[in-house]
Design goal:
Layout (H helix, E strand, L loop, with lengths): L14 E19 L2 E7 L4 E5 L6 H13 L18 E22 L5 E4 L2 E2 L3 H4 L5 E4 L5 H4 L2 H15 L1 H26 L6 H39 L6 E6 L7 H7 L1 H7 L10 E6 L2 E2 H4 L2 H23 L4 E4 L8 H13 L5 E5 L2 H11 L3 E7 L2 E5 L2
Parallel strand pairs: 3-12, 3-13, 7-11, 11-12
Antiparallel strand pairs: 1-2, 1-4, 4-5, 5-6, 8-9, 9-10, 13-14
Helix pairs in contact: 4-5, 4-10, 5-6, 5-8, 6-7, 6-10, 11-12
Length: 391
C-alpha cells in the first residue's frame, strides 16, 4: 500500500471530473507522529475502520486526520507530545477531495520553530484562515468530560464548530480574550494601587461589552438551532426513551455586560479577575428534568455526547455547504447493541462525508458497517503497522 512521497505531488490531478458535496481523504502520510515513524494509507471508501488491541495506535491515526484539518491535535495542545520520542519534528501529508477539487495538504512541525502548512504547495500564513477549510467532527471516550467537567469543556465544544464555520467569530473570540487579559492585568494593578485613575477600566469595559455582545448573539442563535437538531438525533438513537434538554447559559441573558461589569467591579478588584462575561458561558444538560451528570447512566451519557456531536456535525455541514469528515473513536464503548444499531442506521441515512471508526473487535466493526449498506474498508493496526483486511 506504500506510495513514494516523491509521487505525493504528481500522481493526483488538481481537479476531478465528478462533483461530490462531501469531504474525503484519499491518502494519508505520517512521519514521526506519536508512535508512527512512517505510515502511508490509501483510502477508497466512505466508511473506514481501524481495528486492533488497545494502545496500538488506532486513535493516533484519527488524531492525525483531525490535526490535518484543524492544525492541532484533538488531545495534546503541546506540540512536542505529538512528535515521536527522540525526534526533532514531524510531518503530516494528505490528499483531500472536496467537491470537484483535490487539495494537497502538507504540515511540518519542528521543535522550537513555527508550524509550516501548505495547500497545493502554497504556504498558509494564517492558521485561523486554514481552520474550517476541511471541516471535521471527532467523538472520543474522553468526551464524557464535556458532561462531567466544568463549563470550559462545553464552551470549547461550541467554539470548535463556530470557529470552523465562521472566521469572523474566530476573530471576535481572539479579540475578546485579548481585551479580557488586559482587563485582568489592570484589575491586578488596581489592587496594588487603589488610587489609580479608573477611566482606563471604563474604556476597557466598554470595549469588552461591544465584542461580547456580538459573540453572545452568535452563540444564542447557534444553541437554539443546535438544541432542536440534538433532540431529534437523540430521540432517533435512543428511540425516544428519555427527555433531554440543552440550554444556553450566559450572564448576558440578564443584561448588558458593561452594566454587569460596573456592578461587580469591587468584587473583580478583590479577586483580580473578571467574574462576568461570555468567557463563563455554559450549556445546561438535563435528562428527564434532572442534571445529566447526576442521573445519567454511562450509556445515556454516551448517547447524549454522540447525539450532541452529530447535531454539531449537521450544523457545520449546513453552514459550510460540504459534509465534514466524521471521526468516531472507540464508539462502541458503553453503548448497548440496540443503540449501536440505531446509530449506524442513522449514519447510513445522513448526508455525511467520510466516516472513520475505531474498535478492538473486527467482527463487531464489520457488522456495524454492514448495517449502513455502504461500501467500507477495514484496516488492522498492530505494532505501528497498518494492513488492509480482505472482507
Amino acid at each position: 500500500m506504500s506510495i513514494s512521497y516523491k509521487l505525493f505531488y504528481s500522481i493526483y490531478p488538481l481537479y476531478l471530473s465528478s462533483v461530490e458535496n462531501d469531504l474525503k481523504i484519499e491518502l494519508l502520510i505520517l512521519r514521526n507522529f506519536k508512535n508512527y515513524s512512517h505510515l502511508e494509507i490509501q483510502l477508497s471508501t466512505k466508511f473506514v475502520g481501524f481495528t486492533g488491541q488497545n494502545g496500538v495506535g488506532k486513535t493516533n491515526i484519527l488524531d492525525a486526520i483531525y490535526y490535518t484539518c484543524m492544525t492541532k491535535s484533538y488531545f495534546n495542545s503541546t506540540e512536542n507530545y505529538n512528535i515521536t520520542h527522540e525526534c526533532d519534528g514531524m510531518s503530516l501529508q494528505a490528499l483531500l477531495q472536496k467537491t470537484d477539487q483535490t487539495y494537497k495538504v502538507d504540515m511540518k512541525i519542528l521543535k522550537g520553530k513555527k508550524k509550516e502548512i501548505t495547500i497545493n504547495q502554497v504556504k498558509e500564513d494564517k492558521l485561523i484562515e486554514f481552520v474550517g477549510k476541511f471541516p471535521v467532527v471527532m467523538i472520543t471516550p474522553d468526551d464524557n468530560q464535556i458532561i462531567l467537567n466544568g463549563s470550559e469543556e462545553r464552551r470549547k465544544m461550541m467554539d470548535n464548530i463556530l470557529c470552523q464555520s465562521n472566521l469572523h467569530y474566530t476573530q471576535l473570540l481572539i479579540q475578546y480574550n485579548k481585551i479580557l487579559a488586559n482587563r485582568n492585568a489592570v484589575l491586578k494593578q488596581l489592587n496594588d494601587e487603589p488610587n489609580i485613575n479608573l477611566e482606563l477600566l471604563d474604556t476597557i469595559d466598554l470595549m469588552l461589552d461591544q465584542v461580547a455582545q456580538e459573540i453572545f448573539l452568535i452563540r444564542n442563535v447557534f444553541v437554539e438551532e443546535f438544541s432542536k437538531e440534538f433532540e431529534r438525533i437523540y430521540n432517533e438513537i435512543a428511540e425516544e426513551k428519555e427527555r433531554i434538554l440543552v440550554k444556553y447559559k450566559s450572564h448576558l441573558l440578564n443584561g448588558k455586560l458593561y452594566d454587569l461589569l460596573k456592578i461587580n467591579r469591587q468584587k473583580d478588584m478583590i479577586l483580580q479577575r473578571t467574574t462576568r462575561g461570555i468567557h463563563l458561558d455554559d450549556l445546561e444538560m438535563e435528562l428527564n428534568d434532572y442534571p445529566l451528570k447526576k442521573v445519567g447512566s454511562q450509556g445515556q451519557q454516551k448517547t447524549f455526547i454522540v447525539s450532541m456531536k452529530l447535531a454539531l456535525y449537521h450544523l457545520l455541514r449546513d453552514r459550510k455547504k460540504v459534509s465534514p469528515i466524521l471521526l468516531l473513536d472507540d464508539i462502541f464503548e458503553k453503548l448497548d447493541e440496540s443503540r449501536v444499531s440505531q446509530l449506524f442506521n442513522f449514519l447510513s441515512k445522513m448526508e455525511s462525508g467520510q466516516v472513520f471508526v475505531t474498535d478492538t473487535h473486527m467482527e463487531r466493526l464489520e457488522q456495524a458497517f454492514k448495517i449502513t449498506g455502504k461500501e467500507f474498508e477495514i484496516f488492522k493496526v498492530e505494532n505501528g503497522h497498518v494492513e488492509k483486511k480482505i472482507i
